[in-house]
Known about the structure:
There is one protein chain. By secondary structure, this protein is an alpha/beta fold. It folds into 2 domains: 3-146 and 318-330, Rossmann fold (3-Layer(aba) Sandwich), CATH 3.40.50.1370; 162-309, Aspartate/ornithine carbamoyltransferase (Rossmann fold, 3-Layer(aba) Sandwich), CATH 3.40.50.1370. 39% of the residues lie in helices and 15% in strands. The strands form 3 sheets. The chain has a 5-stranded parallel sheet with strand order 1-7-6-2-3, with helices on both faces. Strands 10-9-8-11-12 form a 5-stranded parallel sheet. It is globular. The termini are close together. The mean pLDDT is 98.
Amino acid sequence: MKRFLDLADFSREQVLDLLALAQSLKDHPQPQALAGKILGLVFFNPSLRTLSSFQAGMARLGGSSFVISPGQGTWQLETRLKAVMNGAAAEHIREGIPVLASYCDALGVRAFAEGKNLEADLGESLFGMIDGLCDKPLVNLESAVNHPCQALADWRTLDELGVPRRGKFVLSWAYHPRPLPLAVPAATVHMAAMRGMEVVVLRPEGFALPERIMEKARRAAAESGGSVSETTDRASAMAGAQVLYAKEWGTTDYYGDVEADARLRASLGEWCVRERWFAGAAADAKLMHCLPVRRNVAIADEALDGPRAVVRREAYNRMVVQMAVLHRMLA
Ligand code: CP
């Protein structure tokens, strides 16, 4: 495997194979499998889980890693093509990425959406450039509209919990004071569809996911035998649901317009997940979130601390599945 950029690049069988490898590495640790291998990690944006789980996973396989956070102890990196670099950035990714790749055996990069131009972000223009500059195996640590490591970990979590393949999976918008990127909702709706689930996107008016993201999920569902729909009606969405996956994201009707987004979300504070949301759901319905999460803003304490919440298991599974990705790339 030379690239891990999008679950859609793999067949369902290949994903299941990767998940089986993750389980095998958990049951039968291979502490020397990646001895002598080096993973470079570049974070243009902050992280708690992705950074630490990749470093820990690499170390558990006998390899090592280095971390670069551009502009924090290293040169700030310019990402715009044809930029006149008379500002803060002293180096361009056109030099920076190949140089970093030359020091390591695989590179992971986190580069969020710019959040200004929906078409550019949907087209993964920045990550596409990084992909073209990296001649080593490359892992997407979260790009403009994708987070495949999170999606793979969440698939494993669903399997571990015995959530039926055909179960009802509700991806619900949750409140946040600012517009957050589309990467996790886009990766999540696709993952659940690819797993074969009955996927319902629950969101307020103005916060529909872009058609391109929904269409990609519908294609995955058509292949897996699942389905994808959307609604603004919480009661119908939650009826019989086995999973509520909460996530915050920005308006796509006014993408990049922070003031319009703020006006739209001003009255949506009640989209903070509470136990009562599960009234019509399956008795053992689970609550998922990729973290980080703002308590009592996106999810209330009562739900996050209750028996339905599996957020820490999801976070732990990040390391488990990423070890399988690294093993496939480098062993
Ligand atoms: N879920 C996730 O990617 O967490 P971090 O942003 O902390 O890496």
